[in-house]
Amino acid sequence: MIQDEILIKKQLKNGLTYYIYPTDKVEGQGHFRLFVKVGSLQETENQRGLAHFLEHMAFNGIKHFKANELIEFLENKGSKFGHDLNAHTSFEETIYKLKIPTKDPTVIDSTLTIMSDWVNGMLLDSLEVEKERGVVLSEWLSKQSPRNQSGEVFLNTLLNNSIYNERTVIGDTVSLKHFKLAELKAFYNKWYDPSLMAVAITGDINPIEIEEIIHKKFANIPSEFPKTSVGKIPDYKKDSLIVYSDNWNKKTELNYIQLQDVYKNVNTKTSYHGYLTRSVLNKLISARLAKLSFNDTKYKKTSINISNFLKSKGALLATVELKPESALDGINEFNMHFQQIFQYGFTPLEIEKVSKTMLAAFNRTLQEDKPISAAGMINQMYQDFFNGNMIISLEDEYKMMEEYFYKIDSIQILSALKENKKNSPFQYLLTTNNEHVNSLPNKKELLHTIQKFKTQKVKPYKNDLYVPERLLKNTPKPGIIKRIEPLTAIDAQKILLNNGATIIYKKSLTNQDNILLAGFKKGGFYAMDSINYLNAQYSAPAVSMSGYGDFSREALSHYLAGNSAKIQFLIDKTRSGFFGSANTKDIKTLFELFYLKATEPKVDSLLFKQLKDVSIDNISDKPKSAKENFQEELKYLIRGKDYTTQPNTKSELDKGLNQEAIIPIYNTFFKSANNYVLTIISDKDLEVVLPFIKTYVATIPKGEFDTSYKYKPQAIKNKSVDFIKYGGESPKAVFSLIYQQDHKLKNFSSLEIQNQILESVLKLELNKRLREDMGVVYGVTVSVSATKHPTPLSRQTIALVCKPSDVDIIETEVKSILKGIASGEIDFNEDLQKVKTNLITTFNVNKQKNSFWTKSIRDYYFNQYKNWQFVTDYEALVNAVSIKAIKKITKKYFIKTPLTKAVLYPKKN
């Protein structure tokens, strides 16, 4: 294997590795990472939690940016904290992540200064450390929940009483409250060493300039070349079963875990073929299990996967969700399916489908003649640095894939399966609810039944599948185009069809040889009365699992293997629609698929019964927890209690969900072209696509969509309400402030921009005060939104979790900040400018994506905007939002509006 020639990968004398890869798929944007081969595993007993704490401190003062100046600087340049500026710590790594605008060379230079300071310039000021203790303790508190216990048991089983079990990433409250500053500095000085780090940069950059700056800022940092210890997780010594139950587990789940050697160092043709084989195996297994899920199995859901879960360990992991009342039957059937895979492998038809799909998908990437994405490249850099997986060119990788798939057959796959299922012991973990544990067989009987999968003899899997040769029996006769009009504001064309549909055709500047097809119609579930509402929710899923025309779901999947065409039909509360795409060479298939799914739905009786039975079975009979009751009651308080907000009951599903209703409802939404707005985006001229529009879109029946019924939500509260409950299972308080208005919404596109700005400003101000200054929360969630459907509604929510004793002081602070912004007592101009810069930067990046245009066109017609200024004059609209406007809207939303205060406190002692 030969490294991609575009990639610059080198190492400085102090051991620091750097990666540079220019790609301008998104103009004016770059991804910058600092990789550190250090996590909680390197902590001593006195340093537990400090690797993660140090990650926090990286944003609280470095050599060239004191305290919060770092975040403020990057946000002023268009990067958003949390979205474009973030970090994470795990057992074996710490990664700092930046996404920055790259047109200004000074921003690049300053960003690399920041990264250099992270390596050798964190201030670790004692006052900042003490402030951050509260933030990290709040993060610890936010993660505390009895519901997490099952996940912790699973993780501890994987870690198998190794050093990893003793080095939880966040640490514990004792270490977080009492660690000495000297320990934090000792950890930093020892482990933040250039020899354990890499700078990775990709995007719209100049590699020569970047390399010069890296040498200037990193080459002189001293290095001690410390040696990290690799955590060892021993294999299980013998087969054993752990049974864990609590009051919060809603399902009974059995895990089969076999620990294996880690898979790494994909840097030769042989190792690449091994990596590819595991990918193929996982896809084959996933496809087989998905097919079996459509049968009436005695278990619920299942998965089998072979992969790494840490840099030091791999695993074969099988998971099956059981029905408690028939657990042994479910285990026996799963064992049979497991053994069918590992004893006999896969059929040539299954292998052909996966091979064609994988090879065709990679070939399309290769043939699209467009730059590799920065996000994809940064992930490859990560794999190279941490796992030794060499970065090679797409062309070289495709050649190896072709060679591999040319030779692949069922014998090779079966051999690979046997190689990836070792003879070493398994650990079995069964998690369930306390109510179910006593109804399960005893532990000895469970283990005996589970272990049968090792010796059970089964018959090979059979799949008699008929795949029609054509999507459509007959090609529709072309329909009529009434007229084509220029849509100059967005450089598009508007095509009016005789069947009542409108098409907006826009030529793409990116995504060469690709076509997008999207559409929507107003209505959705809210257009259904209470009788049809239930069946409408199941109409699209029931048809999707049954198939279309002469095709079953599986036959259609096989027919499309290797073809890029795909399209999905969906219904939500306020509209129905679809989204599809294809390579231009598959354009006919895309439009045929659209026509087939729109006009020839079907419902398989057995599959519908299975869908209904599973839906009924998934409704729990056990009482809701205090948190679930709190959330449900709060939802009724805010949105009202009616057929759209209440959960379906078993009785309602049993009596109300009818197969006969599915197709008529589906046809109401999709076999009726009138009032549908479609967007087509392609780099081809309209003349190329027009014949397909005439044949497959203009021929959809006009139909009539009954809009006489209109759902009317409950009127909002006109008085403030305190909704206070006790009984939460964790030690934290869940706290939110909610405001609503039902005024008529004028100039909606401008209002949405104002709402975005206000939301971001509030988030900055609240986090600044509650997190950075007071250290009483890990973070504050702010939502400011508005909708015109089904009736005008604006809603604002401020939500957080905190210590119960802090609720009152936090409420006082929040209200004080809201009042200060509304009155002008708080100077938020700096934050306002920061938010505007970020919004404009994000807009300019998103505008390069075709998905931006499908959404913008949909929003224009769905919300009935008067013009296209929200696209053409976005920057002016954002800059036009003044301090006065934000003060006014804050006063309207938060001062003049009744408040719903909701708090769920822990159980009373």
From TrEMBL:
UniProt GO MF annotations: metal ion binding; metallopeptidase activity
Gene Ontology process terms (BP): proteolysis
Domain Peptidase M16 N-terminal: 30-140
Domain spans labelled Peptidase M16 C-terminal: 180-355, 660-837
UniProt keywords, alphabetically: Hydrolase, Metalloprotease, Protease, Zinc
Coiled-coil boundaries: none
Family according to the record: Belongs to the peptidase M16 family.
Protein name, UniProt field: Peptidase M16
Taxonomic source organism: Pseudalgibacter alginicilyticus
